[in-house]
Amino acid sequence: MIKPKLFFTSPPFLLVWIVALLMSACTSADYSPTSSTKVAPDPSILRIGVSANAPPLIYKKNDKIIGLEADFARKLARYTGKKAKFVEIKWSDQIDALENNEIDIIMSSMNITPPRAYRIAFSNPYLRSGQILLVRLEEKARFATGIYSLMNSNYVIGIIKDTTGDLFITRSINGAKSKTFTKSADAVQALLDKKIDAFVYDAPMVCYYAAINENAKLAPILNLATEEYLAWGIRKEDSKLLAQANQFLQELEETEQLQQMIRAWIPYM
């Protein structure tokens, strides 16, 4: 089994916070695909389920699906001798689509959780991630301890509805004042407009928004509040594809391509 790449550091107290793992999700709940075309099973095609709204892992640019997961998907398809076919699916329908054989694999920034693992199989994880803060650069010193900085404070915290950050803040931060968003871009804009003091979201996405808003002086606080593992979902009965996915990851690790691909897409790694 490959060793998942570490994403920054985690405060010891918060690493034992397990509740978040019951509903962790990287994509925004508001995602609706532009089309819902179904692709029939075909031995020459790898049908890849994606919710393309989670930059830099999986998203659309100029109508093309790109990101770290997209690169993984295309390479995995070649590795298995198949043609990659992306099937856009609403996030909440991903597992149902996999179970109903509408797709072959979920490669859409999905975290491993006990409820999900009960229904589907997961590849070996390729990244250890979690929740971190995005803040304004001039106020970075206020949040030096990461999530601890939010304890018993008057800060207004931006969260995305029905995500790990939402559950973590509402259940774990005493007296938290939060503002809920359905789109991560709206939360980032609210931070720029000083309508919130910090934005709690998945580490890869926070680093992405920090990088593209560098001139606007946003910065990530690189301390993980939760511990989450990203992997690919596969039907439990599809042992062949599961073995191929794990072998593919192992070879990427051994040839040092895995870390190179992660660094190419995720800033601050």
Question: Could you give a short description of this structure?
Answer:
The chain is an alpha/beta fold and 269 residues long. The chain contains 9 helices and 15 strands.
Features:
D-Maltodextrin-Binding Protein, domain 2, 15 strands, 269 residues, 2 domains, seven-stranded mixed beta sheet, 25% strand, five-stranded mixed beta sheet, alpha/beta, elongated
User: What is the helix tally?
Assistant: 9
Gyration radius, in Å = 18 Å
How would you classify the quaternary structure? single chain
- Alpha-carbon distance between the termini? 22 Å
Structural class by secondary-structure content = alpha/beta
Count of beta strands:
15
Uncertain segments are: 8-25
Full CATH superfamily name of the largest domain: Periplasmic binding protein-like II
